[in-house]
Amino acid sequence: MSGKSSLPDRLFLVANSLFFIAVGLVCLIPWIHLIAKSVSDESAVIAGKVFLWPVEIHWDSYEFVLFKSGFVNALSISLFVTVVGTSLSLVFTTLTAYPLSKPRLKGRNLFIMIYVFAMLFYGGIVPNYMLVKGLGLMNTVWSMMIPYLIIPFNVFIMKTFFEQIPEQLEESAKIDGASNLTILFRLILPISLPSLATIGLFYAVAFWNDYLHPLFYINKTNLKPLQLFLYEMIKGIENLRLEGDPERAMNITTATIESATIVLSALPIMILYPFLQKYFVKGLTIGSVKG
């Protein structure tokens, strides 16, 4: 049999490649446009001359955002909430999903129904606000983490993964005298890294992009995360612009500051994603049995 592809196969590969190149450009062009605007001269941006290539490049907008507007403090708050919140969420999600994956757990069906109910029906903003206020979490970074440590959908993803791990692994460990926690942390979790990385990225993106909850729970300026800071910067952009040096203010405008802030806000997640992409390729159902 000849190793050459048939003409229909080659046409399909070409069409498929062109399609995904087009999809990639659709996603990439707006990002390139933002970067070009953020480093372009004010007059060129106002005149609409900037599309994919900057005009009269300067970095005044980035310097203003980084050093004059409180961006660094908001960034540090978002990084803390994302890192700590994601770590705690992974711990609690794992400790919840692993027992639920065992049919021998007493009351398992009841617990599963509770989580299904929580996934389908949202309590509402007012009950959540009253809960956070009653717990004394208002104006603390914990108000952006503790009420949202467990997302039922992620629990079911982890539960499904744990159910697909062969029982022989645990049975052999129990014969050697391992406890349930030992089995979980020394046997199950090491082969669950793809699933943990995937769920961790879901949580990280949710914490990083969270805007609504800080808007309700945070009033102190020094505790506002990046997304809330971005909203307030865009809303009061002219006042922030006037706080800068008059000479540098000539080179920045509302559009350039907005673009610079959006680029800097999205950059951390964009840097993180390539390191976790390989776990998506491996999938959520990786496991093995050693003979």
TrEMBL record:
Entry-linked Pfam families: BPD_transp_1
**One term under GO cellular component:** plasma membrane
CDD domains noted in UniProt: TM_PBP2
Q: Where in the cell is it found?
A: Cell membrane
Q: Which UniProt keywords apply?
A: Cell membrane, Membrane, Transmembrane, Transmembrane helix, Transport
What membrane topology does the annotation report for this chain? Multi-pass membrane protein
Chief location: membrane
Homology family:
Belongs to the binding-protein-dependent transport system permease family.
Q: What is this protein called?
A: Carbohydrate ABC transporter permease
User: What is the species of this protein?
Assistant: Paenibacillus thalictri
